[in-house]
Structure formats: structure tokens, C-alpha cells
Design goal:
alpha/beta, homotetramer, two-stranded antiparallel ribbon
């Protein structure tokens, strides 16, 4: 107890069934856990509050606007576009078509992480410029994945929302990099990440002072082989009770089958998702990547109408027009000493 | 080819890249696979059509009525009631309350398969009689799980829909038993069963001449520990494209948390489920089993209203009043010889 | 506390951080959990001791002999034979060959649970008679799966070890049936059963008075598709620390590939398994079932030699010759009252 | 076919059952798959050879030496040390003790990827210098994880084997970075990566000209909660048949329990692993990270003896002394044009 007090923590001793329990009265969620586990005579450390305080406790509305598009405020955001930007013409045409279909943001891959190193890995910086051109023509904010600090730099001017893909959710160096920008971040759940790990990944971003984080459920990996992934909508309903960050769902990756995108998009809205991320292609079978799961702009239009209808049903109150001042960075990280030693 | 012809199968030979492919022209989905794999010089057997022909190909509407409740016809069926029948009073009161809340069938466990042998395993035959009494008072058809041939016998008179629980989906002897009755069967997906295995389990029942099978998604087992199971709604959308059998969803077991039952019930309807199976209890925290996932009749009432609204949105056409004649049993099993030998 | 005392339980009250903890001093592992959870003012019930007391706490050596074969005593048991008994000739020849290869027991399926209802489901009672004949010729004890009470009856005279397959591990009615026999039971872990569920399934058998239970790890279901299942050898090492029941491993189902049977058989012995269950066939590619995973008797012989060498390395002490008197049935089930009501 | 020929590929046409199959005679494993899938009239593309040609087909012995330690040549490599380098004294003492225990390389985390952002994340560059000092004192090559290009740079002089952790197996930018160094790379399987994905991740490294890749199985994520991960030894046996790259196993992360490290280390060697990666700590309960799974140097010594005994049993031939010339970089990547368009 003496040593805990040296850390500035108030604590209390209780006895229970022959054991001594030291209860830390203050919020200690940001103190490294080895500060407690290493103490002599400590047998077990039990966390009673979540260890992602910024992500969990923010009482305020965490929705935000990008241009005219509001993430997290009642009307489902629909981020649509091709898996990969394939050419200038393709993305300009697609942007016009998905806007017409009701999309409120444009997605398109410039840098593609591919399982196989020989597959098409995106047009790179060129694609970023095309996306910006599409934004200029349609007014749709752009969403695109970044894989490295260098790519974040290149994306600054062209991309409105930086996407962290499922493969990089555990890439904490990259999370810190996007946390240092002031761009909103769309953070996808890794294919076998727990809900708690997703929230802790978000905490990495918030901790750097960037509060505009959108969580994205995109399917987890299970034994079921009929679908590419198992879309975990339980996680959406659960997340909505654990954080105020907007939660969107990607039924394209979540199912891997074009025919399942509509039913699962509607299910996502019905269980409380704030929006959708959907792969749409002018000619799905010709997509350079993920051809099986892309839908046409016409199919997208149907989904948007139905999704909005369902959203109205389950959230009858119209969202209040709202602009939120960007919050002060509140870096609450516990300042660790250089060595791992505890203060004596 | 000579030997295949002895089995009554027409076949054709094609050559491809130095290999010889023998294509069987007839429907051979019901011929035991070893009849092909064992033939000399056969290297590989590829199934091009599904091996659950009764479950997969039935072109007709597979919905059916039980009393006034239609399973599979546009308006969501809501099967509600306690996990376990705990007493006569409890089930009579609950039945009245869930009916008032909009439930269209009554569930209640008489025989409970329990992971731990020391836990409460149901009131047994007594509970069946109470359920029948509740049916008489409310007009609600009764749904209850059976674990053995003996229990099927006992349930005959009291129970309208025999439930096969997730733990018994692979219990093929039991599937054959319920297949021999003329009671509708609610077949739950096992906790790690693939969609194809669920359909083959249904085939066991249909093959015995019982076509009234209702499939039930109730969550699969994954690494995620925040929820009891991971409700696989992809499977619902997928099943609707693979069979005409009604598909219902159990958001109570599928989430294990009362607070998630409503959002996931609505998601289930939004992606095309024909109904819901929900644990409702007059006093959830006092439930003898699964207390964490039970909801109150009032919460149920809210779900029923919202679920019907969503169902109307996604299936605007009102269901046609309809009574279906019970189909002739069509046992198409390939008649196997006593030994495993192929005809020469 | 007054009501707990009515149940015959001594308890103690402690306070901790504003909460009141009632600690039950007696062993309450066999009291139904709703007896505690339903009490007014009880917020949470925490089990500190495992709820499979018979399986967990038995201090004595749980190994046993069948004929000359000892299950669980240092020298690996090798149960080998075809997936299915296909004919009298086949099983007699195979029995002779696997005995020569060093097998210490003979397996062979008489009743086969098949995912697809149209596949070969075993020769039934006929196969049982052939197995008995093979036993008479070779002296090898016989192991075969049973799926129903009726089949247990038929197997009585011919089969020495009743196998409960992975698909029936949760079939508690069947577990109780084999528990009522005095035959040793080989209990396979279900494809997504936790270690704790396997132990509780064993408890069902022990609770009926049958203590000769052999646990079998046979692979769990994961996302990995290169192998049929994922053999969970962690579970073997873990089980050895949780129970004295013998633990065997089935590398045939655990991998689904003949080429992996040997390395995984040796790994199983290296991490402490008491034996192996291996599918061996005179002509693997002609096996009526599971042809991909069957090995030849010659390959089996190599495995037996290597497995014994590894067993000697890790357990240098030679096993003491030993015959164990069959323990008295100790049915410690808490006697539940007819209704679910607590004593007042 | 005309367009495939423009890509320099020889092809052949065969007809089969009314369908036309175009078979590509040349090795096309490195051609981006959309070059085929996008062609008009192409319905389906089937890969018959694996798409990781460098990883899969290398016929030569892929073992290599680092100092006196050979990776992949018969005698198990034992990489041991603390999860995190905690201080200069700690790592120097530990290095001496693990060497004495028979370790052939030293591990120690300098940069720790932590699920929780508030936990200890390593001493950084300071730790690298301590590791180099420990190498100088003991002669043990050093193994340490890197998370970014910047850290690779810092590690150059101090670290002999760059570790890519499970969280970064899908971080293809990082894989390319380590591929550009000439340091051996220890590549851990991600927690839900398939075997094929692991091999393709290795291909990213080999493709940059770095052939010294060691694959590491460290447990996958499943539903089983008794162990931290499920060690997938099937994968080890499978990998040994798919590639000549050395395969090592990490039973510390693979089980998460100190008591299971020994049995699973032995199992790993028994099924063919080329080595072990083990967390050893002078005082396990005081470890700043992963305290539950660390073992003492004395326990390590026992494992080394037993592992070598088992290795001798299963691979009786002594490894031939051998130094392999570093192979020429063979970058066989198919040179993609700037746009995604196919040559007309």
C-alpha cells in the first residue's frame, strides 16, 4: 500500500475469507498492469473498470460531420465504391452513380493489402488523385485505406477518412500514426479480434488526440465456409452499449457474396449500426479484386432506401442538426519511467 | 462405366488435360459416395449437386399452419416462453402474458439438457401437461424440446412442435425418430455445425416422410467471449437461398444477454428470418436456467411490434391465406444392399 | 443464510468493499446452481471448485485393464482398425495385421453416424458379431461406437469398450445409458466442446456408477481448412492436470490426412497421452468411409515402435503390474425435490 | 487465348461436358489473378499450383547458420529468454542462465506490441544494446521483434534474427521491409491465419530477395478458454510437407501456461518442428509481461534435454556440417503495367 501511494493512488484494505484485498480507489485504468502484478505478495490483479477510458467513458455525442455527411447521428452513413480504384474513368463514373444511388461517402482502394504478393496491389498515389477528383465532382467525402506512415502523408490532401484495414488493426505503430493526424479514422476489426481488442485499438488512436474514430465490423473468421467471413452483428449491438463512437458495418467483406449484401446491410441497420461500407462496381464481374462480393449501383440504391426506412423505424426521432467543436486532445497516458522499476 | 450402369446410372465419358472424367447424367445425390470412390481407377469424386435433395429442391411453399399460427409465410412467428417450465402457475401466467405481448406460439422446456449433471433438468412429463393446459387456455401452439424416443412418445399429446436442441442436431437416431412422427420439428443448428450439415440433418427428418421442418439459427461458438454465442445471421440469409424450409432465429441463446435480444431479433427479421424464438420470463432474474438472457413480457411486446414493422417493410406483399395439404412421404433413399460390396 | 442452512449447508458471511459475500463452507458442487441464483438479494454465484467432483478429485489411479490391455498406465494403448467394418473377411484380416503391428485393441465401426443420410451407415449387428470373432482370434479387446440404448444392448456381448462419438458427447441421455452399463466408455470430445464440457460429460457417466471412462481428443473445428480438424494437444496436457482418467488421442480424425497421422501420433504421446486411436485399413483408398485418413498396417507398425520409444523417454519408470478392484458406485447427486421451489 | 498469348503464356483448349477449359501450360503462379478473371467469357479461374512459388518449390536445404547455431538442420534450435528486456542486469543474467540450460539463441523483447496502450511497451533502443552485450558475453545470436522500418534500422547492428510478431503477419509493408534486409526473419503465424496465408506472407519476404525465413507456429485463436491459444501442431506437420523453410514452435504463447510449456515443447519436436521459442525468466512471477507463461532456466534445461532426445529418436541421422552460400535474389515477380488494363 505504501508503494501504491507513492504512485499517487489512494487505496483501501479489506479482508475476505482469509485473503487481503487491496482496492484502488482512484481510476487506475491507465497505470501499466505490471506496476501491480510485480509487487511482492500480490497474487492476482483484477480490473474492474475497462482499460480503454477514452473510448469507453466519453459521455458526449461522438458523432461528427465530414462535409455534409454525418457519421453517427441517426441517418445511416453509406460509404460505397469499388474495392480498388482501377482507373480515372472508373472511379469518376462510379462516384457519380453511387451518389445518385444515395451513398453519402465514396470508398476506393488506392493501396491494397493482398494476401498474395503477386496480385494487384492498387494504383497507389495516382488513385488518390482520382479519388480527390471524384470528390470535387460529387461532393462526397473520400474513404481510403492506408498501410504506412508514408501513405498517410500521401493521402492527407486527397482523403477525408483514413481507413485502417482488418489486417492492420493490431499494427499499433500505424494506429499511433493515424492518431497523430486530425483526419477521421475508420478502424476495421481484425478477423479474429475480440470486441475488447477493437476498443483498445481505438484507444491507441484517441490517446494521440484524435477522437474521430469510426469502428467497423466486417466479419470474423469461423469454421463456416459458405460465407467468406461470419458477420458478427452481436458485436455491433454490444459496441453500441460500450462506447459512443460510431459503428458501421461492411456486409461486403462480412459475407463475401453479392447476394447476401442487401439482407445483411438491413440487418446491420436494424441492430443499431450507424452506417454501411459497401463495395459497388459498375460491372462487378470485372472488378480486379473481390469481384464476388461487389454489387451494382442499382442494387445499392435499393439498399439505401430500405436501410433508411429501417433506421427511421428503430430511431424515430430525427437527428438534431449539430456541429461539434473538435475536442481538446486529452492525453491521459500514465507517464512511465524509463526503466521498468517501480518507485520504491 | 459398366459398373455404374449396373447401378442404373447413365454416364458419359469426357477427356480433359490427359484425365478422364466420367460424368453421371442422372441424379445420383442419394447414392452412397463409396459406390463411386471405391471403384478401381477412380481418383476423385466431385459432387456437383447438393446431397440433400429433399431439403434443397422442393419448389413448393414449405410454410405450414399449426392452429392459427403460420410458420414461414411472411408474418414473423414469435415463439416465446420460459427456458424451463418451473411450475403450473408459472407457465399458465407466462402463456397469458406472452400471448398478450403478441407471441404466436409458446415455448417451455420440460426436458432440459444441462452441461452440468447436477443442474435442474426440467420437470419432465408434468411440465408437458402444464404446457397443454396453457395451450388450452391461450390457443397458442406449444413448442418443447425432446431428447429421446421415450420423450417423443410422452410429448405426442401435449406438444405441437418438437424441438431438437443444438446439442442433438448430430444425433441422427433422434432425428429419424422425430422424422417418423407427423409433428412439425424445430431443428436447431449445433454450435459448430456448418450450414451444409444443418441441411443434411434436416434431410434425415424429411427422408422419414416428415416435411414440416423449421430450421433455427441460435448462434455458433467462436473466440468472442463478450457474448455467449455469435449469432450467425449470414446463415439465415444463406439458408433462405438454399431451401424453402422456414428459418427462425433464437436471439436469446444467440447472444446470451437480455440487452441484446431486441436489436438482434430485429436484425434477424431484417435479413429474412421467418420468425423468432425468445426466452421470456415473468421475473428474469429468478429463472432456474439462462436467467441472463431472459426478457420480460413487456420487452417482448416491444420486439413484436418492431419486428412486424420491419417484416412489412421488407416483404410488402401480405401473405396469402393458405392451407397446404400434407405431402405424400417421398422416401427417395437409395436402397443399399446388405453388404458394402458393389454390384459386379 | 437461513435458507442455505435448510439445505444442510454451512455458510459464512464476509464483507468486502461494501458488498456482502456469503461463502459456502461445504462442498456444494453438486447442488443445482439455481438454488443459489434464485435466492432473493443474490446478485452473483461464483463457483470456486469444479462442478465435476467425481471426475476431478479422484485421487487414485484411474487406469484399468481390459484383458491384457491396460488403459492409462504408462505404455501407450493403441486402438487400431478400420473406420467401418466392411465384411467378415476384412475385419478378421485387419485384426490379425494390426495385432502384428503392435495394436493393443481393435476398433471397427458397426453403427456409423454419417453427416449425409445417403452414405453407408455400417453393417450393424452383423458387424458386432464379426468384431467378436476377430477378438476371439486375436485376443484384442474390441472398441465400437454406439448411438442408442438399443445398440448398447446389442453390443453388450461383443464389444469391450463402448465408444461415444464426437457427435454424441452432448447426448446426455446416451451418456446416462452407457453410465448404467459396466463397460468401459471411450468418450470423444465434441468438435467444439470446451475441456470443461468434456469433463462434465464424463461426470454424467461416472455419476451413474461407471468409473471406467477414457477421454479422447479428436480435433476441434477451426477456420483452418488444410486439415479436417485442428488436433488440440494443449487439451491433452491440460486434461492430464485436471483428472486421472486416461486420455487418448485420435490423430486420424484429428488431421484427416494419412500423411499427418504419424507425426501427430508421436506428438500426442510426447505431450502425455495414454494412447492412440488410429484408423488402419488393408487398402486405405478402398475404405468405405474416411479413406483419406486411413493408414496401412505397415505404417501403423512404425508408429507403434516410435510411440513406445517416446513414451519410455518421457516416463522412464516402468508401469507396475496392477489390477484395480472395481470401485463402488458413489452416486453423489444432490437429490432434487420434485418442484423447482427452494425449501422455505 | 489470343490475349493470354500476348502475356507470353502458352495455353491449350480442352472441352469437358459442354464447357471449355483453357489450360495454361506455363507457370502462371505469379501473374495477378485479375488478368484471368477479368477476361470476357471467363467464368472461373482455378489455381492448380500454389501461388507462393519461392516458398513452395525450393528443392534445396533451406537451413542456415547464424554463428554456431543452425536453423533447420536436425538438432532443435532453442531460442529462449524473457518476454521483455527489463534491465541490463536482467538480460545479461538471463542470457548466461539460458545458455547454460542449453539454449542456442537468445530472445528478448525491446519493442513490445501491447493490446492495451497503457501497458509497458519495451525499453526500446536501450534494450537492443543490452541484447548485443548479452550476445557478446554468451555467443548466443539474438532474436527480437521489430514493428516498423525505423525499428529495423535500429536493430541492424544488435539483432541477428528479426522477429515479425503474430500481430504483424498481415502487415505486408513491414514484411517487404524485412525482406529488403539480409537478416534472417522469424515470421510468426497470425492468430487466425491459415497455413496458406502464412506461406504467402513468407513469399513477400522471399520475393524481396531474403531467403532466410523461419516460420513459427504460436497458437491460433479458438473457443477454448482454458488455454490462451490453441497450439496447432497439425500446422507444423503440414508445413513440413509444403516448404523447406525451417519451422519452429512457441509453446509459451501457444499455451499461455507455464505448466504446459514442457509437454507441448516435446510434442512440437515429436511432430517435426525444427526448434522452439520459449519464454524464460529468472523469476517468472515478476515478469513485466506474460508472467503466467514464463518458465525458469532450470525448467528450460529439462526441456532441452528431453527435446534433443526426442529429436534423435525421430531423426536418427546426424546433421551434416554444412554452410550454404547465400542464394542470388530471384525476384520473379510478374512485372505489372501501371494501369490495371490487360494488353489487348
Amino acid at each position: 500500500m505504501h508503494r501504491l501511494e507513492k504512485l499517487g493512488l489512494t487505496c483501501e484494505k479489506v479482508s475476505s475469507g482469509g485473503r487481503t484485498v487491496i482496492s484502488i480507489v482512484d481510476d487506475a485504468s491507465t497505470v501499466p498492469s505490471h506496476y501491480f502484478s510485480q509487487l511482492d505478495q500480490v497474487d492476482k490483479v483484477i480490473n474492474v473498470s475497462p482499460r480503454y477510458p477514452l473510448t469507453a467513458t466519453a459521455p458526449q455525442d461522438k458523432s461528427f460531420f465530414i462535409g455534409a455527411t454525418r457519421f453517427g447521428g441517426g441517418i445511416p452513413v453509406v460509404v460505397a465504391g469499388p474495392c480498388s480504384v482501377e482507373s480515372r474513368t472508373q472511379i469518376l463514373k462510379t462516384a457519380a452513380r453511387v451518389k445518385q444511388a444515395g451513398a453519402t461517402a465514396l470508398r476506393g482502394g488506392a493501396f491494397k493489402p493482398r494476401t498474395n504478393p503477386y496480385d494487384f496491389c492498387g494504383l497507389g498515389p495516382e488513385a488518390l488523385a482520382y479519388l480527390a477528383e471524384a470528390r470535387a465532382e460529387t461532393g462526397l467525402p473520400t474513404v481510403s485505406e492506408v498501410l504506412s506512415a508514408e501513405q498517410i502523408e500521401m493521402a492527407q490532401e486527397h482523403i477525408d477518412v483514413l481507413q485502417i484495414g482488418a489486417r492492420n488493426m493490431y499494427n499499433y505503430e500505424l494506429l499511433k500514426e493515424v492518431g497523430r493526424t486530425r483526419k477521421p479514422v475508420l478502424l476495421k476489426r481484425a478477423m479474429s479480434a475480440t470486441i475488447d481488442e477493437l476498443l483498445q485499438a481505438a484507444e491507441y488512436i484517441l490517446l494521440e488526440g484524435n477522437e474521430k474514430v469510426i469502428l467497423c465490423e466486417r466479419g470474423i473468421r469461423t469454421f463456416e465456409a459458405r460465407t467468406r467471413n461470419t458477420l458478427d452483428l452481436n458485436a455491433v449491438a454490444m459496441l453500441k452499449s460500450m462506447t459512443n463512437l460510431p459503428v458501421v458495418v461492411d456486409p461486403s467483406h462480412g459475407t463475401g457474396r453479392a447476394s447476401l449484401v442487401k439482407p445483411m446491410a438491413l440487418a446491420a441497420i436494424a441492430c443499431g449500426a450507424d452506417g454501411l461500407l459497401i463495395e459497388a462496381h459498375l460491372e462487378p464481374s470485372k472488378s480486379v479484386s473481390d469481384a464476388e462480393q461487389a454489387i451494382t449501383p442499382d442494387e445499392l440504391a435499393e439498399i439505401v432506401v430500405a436501410a433508411n426506412n429501417i433506421a427511421r423505424l428503430i430511431q424515430p426521432t430525427p437527428p438534431v442538426p449539430y456541429t461539434r467543436p473538435f475536442a481538446e486532445s486529452k492525453n491521459r497516458r500514465f507517464d512511465p519511467p524509463v526503466s521498468t522499476a517501480l518507485p520504491n
